[in-house]
């Protein structure tokens, strides 16, 4: 049975890993902190860890991308996209009105993961503009905190799974600003992983650092992919954190790392005095396609 570190029961990450393995029995080690989830592979307590890296509404989960690059050296072994369906969860009796609907104006505090709160801005602005907003370690933790604090007017933004686990009410369903709210997850680990279905495609993630003061260097890097007709699906700059104005480029390519074309492109980029680090070459799965 695969041992996998993941955020607490009822988190979006938990729902997402169950989807990836399609009901396969897994030995899930739930941890409260994403930092512990990153470290779990290196400490040997698990084979793989589940890391959310990008969201449709919020974009990159920068903290997690930075951890992948700066804090650990663990390859990505699979990527999948899963819907982040967020709901308002609370002790319904604190807010219920005579007609059975909820008075969201009575909400004093909304707790959730800092990435989930901005996904629901419109709902919050419209229904509970005066509520305090508090970011916690996961959507599941937010639901647990609300459960333990009845009578205070607190609600959480989280999954139905978490509401069920803690016996709380779903006061409003699907409250994200856009229906197509998906999160991209990666599985990191030192060994390739077997997943019980065919991937949609294979991708390689590269981290490219340009030489200093080299005008046109990024253009030349991109040309190495372009003239080989290699399909890039992500290009993002992040600060190297070494000095202001110094960046690395995070590049995803739809190709396996050992393909002739990508090997040649990487050699060309290195010949430009760029540093190239392979963060992983892995199968990708898209919800809900099940090949
Ligand atoms: O808090 C959770 O439920 C998580 O799985 C974490 C996380 C994230 O870090 O992006 C995952 C997806 C959600 O959209 C919001 C939060």
UniProtKB/TrEMBL annotation:
CC annotations in GO: cytoplasm
EC category: lyase
Record domain ACT: where: 206-283
InterPro entries: ACT-like_dom_sf, ACT_dom, Chor_mutase/pphenate_deHydtase, Preph_deHydtase, Preph_deHydtase_CS
Residues in Prephenate dehydratase domain copies: 2-190
Residues with site note (Essential for prephenate dehydratase activity): 183
This protein's UniProt keywords: Amino-acid biosynthesis, Aromatic amino acid biosynthesis, Lyase, Phenylalanine biosynthesis
GO MF terms held by the record: prephenate dehydratase activity
Catalytic activities: prephenate + H(+) = 3-phenylpyruvate + CO2 + H2O
PROSITE patterns registered for this protein in UniProt: ACT, PREPHENATE_DEHYDR_2, PREPHENATE_DEHYDR_3
Pathway: Amino-acid biosynthesis; L-phenylalanine biosynthesis; phenylpyruvate from prephenate: step 1/1
UniProt-recorded name of the protein: Prephenate dehydratase
Species: Paenibacillus polysaccharolyticus
Biological-process GO terms, alphabetical: L-phenylalanine biosynthetic process
Enzyme Commission numbers on file: 4.2.1.51
């Amino acid at each position: 049975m695969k041992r996998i570190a993941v955020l607490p029961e009822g988190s979006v990450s938990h729902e997402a890993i169950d989807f990836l393995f399609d009901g396969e029995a897994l030995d899930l080690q739930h941890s409260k902190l994403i930092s512990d989830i990153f470290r779990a592979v290196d400490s040997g307590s698990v084979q793989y860890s589940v890391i959310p890296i990008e969201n449709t509404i919020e974009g990159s989960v920068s903290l997690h991308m930075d951890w992948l690059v700066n804090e650990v050296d663990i390859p990505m072994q699979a990527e999948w996209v899963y819907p982040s369906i967020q709901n308002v969860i609370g002790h319904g009796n604190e807010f219920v009105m005579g007609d059975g609907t909820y008075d969201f104006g009575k909400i004093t505090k909304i707790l959730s993961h800092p990435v989930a709160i901005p996904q629901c801005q419109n709902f919050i602005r419209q229904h509970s503009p005066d509520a305090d907003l508090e970011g916690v370690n996961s959507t599941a933790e937010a639901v647990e905190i609300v459960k333990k604090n009845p009578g205070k007017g607190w609600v959480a933004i989280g999954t139905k799974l978490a509401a069920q686990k803690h016996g709380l009410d779903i006061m409003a369903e699907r409250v994200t600003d856009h229906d197509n709210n998906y999160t991209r997850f990666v599985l990191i680990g030192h060994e390739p992983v077997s997943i019980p279905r065919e991937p949609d495609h294979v991708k390689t993630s590269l981290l490219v650092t340009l030489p200093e003061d080299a005008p046109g260097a990024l253009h030349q890097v991109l040309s190495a992919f372009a003239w080989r007709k290699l399909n890039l699906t992500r290009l993002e700059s992040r600060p190297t954190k070494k000095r202001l104005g110094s960046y690395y480029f995070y590049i995803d390519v739809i190709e396996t790392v050992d393909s002739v074309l990508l090997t040649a492109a990487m050699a060309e980029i290195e010949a430009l005095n760029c540093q190239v680090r392979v963060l992983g070459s892995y199968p990708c799965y898209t919800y809900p396609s099940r090949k």
